[in-house]
Amino acid sequence: MSSKFFTNTENNTLFKKFEGIAQGMANFHSFHAVVGFFRSSGYFELRKLLGDVKEIQILVGINIDNIFRKHNRAMLMLGKEDEAKSIYSQDFIDDVQTAGYADNIEKGILQLLNDLYTDKVVMKIHATKNLHAKFYLCLPETHTQHSGGCVIMGSSNISEAGLGITQPPRYELNVEMRDYDDVAFCKDEFDKLWNEADTITYNDIEKLIKKTHIGNCPTPYELYIKVLIGTFGNQVEDDFPIALPDGFSELKYQKDAEIEGYQMLLSHNGFFLADVVGLGKTVVAARIAKRFVEANGRNTNILIVYPPAVESNWKDTFKLFGLSRKTQFVSNGSLSHILEGKHNYKDKEEFDLIIVDEAHGFRHETTGSYDELQIICKSPRQNQGLIPGKKKIMLLSATPLNNRPEDLLNLLGLFQDKHRSTISGITNLQKFFAPLIDSYKEIMKNRKTGVNTADIDNIYEKIRNQVLDFVTIRRTRNNIWNAHEY
């Protein structure tokens, strides 16, 4: 039995609802939104569905995000227009200049600014600063009893969480109504609120953009650096010093792994450290952990998951690096102690960084140990420090490709959302892996007649080139011996 209500669960999200309306409403002309919170990250996703919509009007409360909050506060609270514009101008420039090099950040800023400048979208803020209603109108150009149209009302704001894009999605309760009287009533209420509100303007948009890196023509050298950053990540600029304990040498190949691994943690929430045996994976992991603690703050908590045979190696190394007080250690067969709150372990939500040694031991998603580790890795961080976002996961394994394709997908799922990947070019890992898993199973099913190793190699080459290269550090002894700088 179908219902007008939906809750952002089981793929029945507000984003999916808007996607269906955009595809199914032939005369979708106007989108009107009244929200208490506005997040540009949510708008960027929603905007993809509204490309053909002629009129987009968004009315927000006071809790819009940083790209607008300070501007609106200046406009609404200062009596002198020149003073307000001065604050607005400097804040805008600061926002753009501090946005960083991330491609999605730059594109997102440009998209939203361009939409405001070209009047593709008009935004207003309600003068009472007390706007808590949340509803969305999707209308044809002329709304009548026979022309269609709908209103969605409930708890969702324009944010990734409100739209149900984040995984796991936050629980929201919304209802869709298509009755003419309901839609017409909400349209009248929207018009009243809209007429009472103050417009968010960008009259000086061109002048302001020219004062930022976005509006300036870069030099050839700046373009060269931009290409390096896009190809290799921010490690091309990295000179963050780590004080090594007495007795440890500054080996360049370990320093490079520290820089690259740390950037992978920030970009993808995790990575595989897959150097061969003997190159010092434990030391590299300790260097990255030390750096993470210094960047994230003193309240950082680390969890090491280890095979019992190497317990002393981990504890001794982390003690030398001054990390013992911030680290708890658990054997790979005792993860239930954390979930059950035994033996003075911290709650799973308290860990910020999780390091898993011999991670290939958790490759089978049907095992209880995998479920336990996944729950620990995917639970939200309770006390986020200076580095926000999800938990950061390091998976150590000297044999990352000695696994079936589905095993690799399971391991990736410990730090990646399988349906919303951060890996460039692969939005949906589940969809990417599905045909490769099927092909691998078919080959292995027919192996009695002989396995075509070229076909197997092709499967792993695709996985390596399109996925693992972005989230894996892997060096052999030959790599070290043959590199002059090492």
Structure report:
- By secondary structure, the protein is α/β, with parallel strands linked by helices.
- The protein folds into 2 domains: 5-209, 2-Layer Sandwich (Endonuclease, Chain A), CATH 3.30.870; 232-481, Tandem AAA-ATPase domain (Rossmann fold, 3-Layer(aba) Sandwich).
- Helices cover 43% and strands 14% of the residues.
- It contains 18 helices and 14 strands.
- It has helices at 14-24, 40-47, 66-77, 81-97, 103-117, 160-163, 180-196, 205-209, 220-232, 252-268, 281-296, 311-320, 336-339, 368-378, 405-412, 429-445, 453-471, 477-481; strands spanning 5-6, 30-38, 55-64, 121-125, 135-139, 150-154, 174-177, 198-199, 270-273, 302-306, 327-331, 353-356, 392-396, 472-473.
- The strands form 2 sheets. The protein has an 8-stranded mixed β-sheet, with helices on both faces. A 6-stranded parallel β-sheet has the order 11-10-12-13-9-14.
- Helix 2 (40-47) links the parallel strand 2 and strand 3 (55-64).
- The longest helix is centred in the C-terminal third of the chain and has 19 residues, at 453-471.
- The protein starts with a strand and ends in a 5-residue tail after the last helix.
- Mean pLDDT is 82; it is low at 63-85.
Cα shape: globular
Rounded to the nearest angstrom, the radius of gyration is 26 Å
Bin the strand percentage: 5-15%
Count the E strands: 14
What's the CATH C level of the largest domain?
Alpha Beta
Helix tally equals 18
Largest sheet: 8 strands, mixed
Query: What is the fold-level CATH name, i.e. the topology of the largest domain?
Result: Rossmann fold
